[in-house]
Amino acid sequence: MSVTRNFILNPKRLFQTWKFPIRLVLVVPFVLQISVAVGLTGWLSLQNGQQAVNDLAAQLRAEIVARIETQLRDYLQAPRMINQINANAIELGHLDSQDTGSLTRQFWRQRNLVDRITVSAIYLGGADGEFIGLGFQNNNRWEIGRAGRSTGGNFHSYAVDNFGNPGELLEVGNPYDPRIRPWYEKAVQENQPIWSDIYVDFKDPRLKITLAQPLYEEGGNLRGVLGVDFVLSHIREFLETIKIGKSGQTFIMERSGLLVATSVPQLPYQIEGDRVNRIAAVDVEDFLIRETAKYLKSYFGDLAQIKAQKQVAFKIKGDLKFVQVVPFSEGENLDWLIVVVVPESDFMERIQANTRTTIQLSLVALILAIGVGLMTARWITHPLWQLSQASMAIANGDFERRVWVDRSDELGTLAKAFNQMSAQLKSSHEQVAEYSRSLERKVRDRTQELQAEQEKSEQLLLNIFPAAIAKRLKDNQTAIADYFPDVTILFADIVGFTTLSSRVSPIQLVSWLNHIFSTFDRLAEKHGLEKIKTIGDAYMVVGGLPEQRPDSAEAIAEMALEMQQAIQEFCIITGQHFQIRIGINTGPVVAGVIGLKKFIYDLWGDTVNVASRMESSGLPSKIQVTTATYHRLNHQFTFHKREPITIKGKGQMITYWLIDKTPNPPQSNPQIPQ
After folding, report:
1. pTM of the model
2. 343: part of which helix (H) or strand (E)?
């Protein structure tokens, strides 16, 4: 108690009372530093490894999901194209729905338009119960299917010749009426092209979905339903080719929890006698997929609540699993969930082993350092005492004091320095004065250099921000947000640029992208517009801010047309095939700069979102504008009105294609198919 009380009242006196050996004073801090370094090394190694794993797993999951989404959309795009072609041909009278020969020959020619992985059957079910179709069967050959009056109501399968005509009768199947099939009933009920629910094929035990499109006569009577089938086993085959770490898996399921496809060989259905029963994700044999599905169902309660991309993590038997679940939709009624799960152990095993090795080596180094420190402290104790005494004498003004240490190491050198110190003090004072004058000259030179650098920095700031915004930032305004009631926004995306990245080198790809975006920058400067940012191969520019201008819509439209021309010229120069998709919208926004680091001048508001939707829902080589922009420009530019389209978050919208600078004729505004 007395020692503690003395330390609190007078710690300096306590340290003066205790006689610490200089050997201990030298060794203890040294040992403490090494101990702290060892601990921090191990901890930082583990933390950095963990962070690297998290980042890598997130990037891997995002890339896998993007790859799956792209593949699914490629799969499902072909049925839409074929159905629309056939529907247009029948409605225009180019194809007779009652002429079974012309139908099969049409279907036979269309099979070469797409890969069989995308489309497995093309057919027409008539309102009178007649059925004619062409399908790729499990025996790896195309067959013509017929049912109706000519077949006595049974399903007949025929061989097909090289011209699409039926040949030898191969099989007589069960009674078949297309009007009671799920795809037919749903298309008639919804009265629009629609994806059917997942169902079992009539002929082979396999899961399929059908894009069904009803056909009507001029009087409004139902003529029949066109259908294009897609077999879900192709999705499973694609997922099996994806390598996700060491043991990661991916699967696709409906909101109900029923499987669509997985990356494991197990089929998403079971055959029990004549019945085919689908399997829920929580009942899959694969442990990782099954437990992931159970966790998602428990975590979200209802899978229908997953409206956007989610990243979650959970533990199974102490092993952390990273999960990414992304909604995937196609049309109004196809609504699936893509799930990618990656175990942390796939990445952490090697990192943990390296961390253990690092800690072991650090401990060995610590033990050796303690031993060496003790010997070193003993070796330098006596010379340090002599140097201490000499230092005190010189501090008191005794510049004649000498230290005699007969050693050739650093301590010996230090002793010689002490001996020279007294003689050099006077000359040192003069050198300090001269150095002060020299330093003043250097300060003046450096000040001029700093002024030049400041001018460069200001120019760089003007390249990043509008002049008005840059001035406000230099005035230490931490957050900038301004309301602009009338601006026009353009989003552009280079179609096919991402696909091209797999065929050319990254340096070539970036060089092309730099050439294109530099051209766009010059166009923006030419028209007095403000470039906001680029995201990958997407480009965003706005007119009407930070200084308001009444002709922002005209300037944006002219730049959009010139951007199309620039892309065409670039294709001629490079020999590559590029297309640009552009969307434009006009309205109010909030613009400004927020945050603490890496400032960017950005826009917010519904006008921005709709402009982005105009680009993403447009077509290659097309410029899609909203009604607001159209009303600003319809007297100065040529437009074509587009059929109403569904915009995410906005519902049905009327949009227009911007065609040329010449205004529309006043008497008409023709529509073109979307």
Report:
1. 0.48
2. strand 334-343
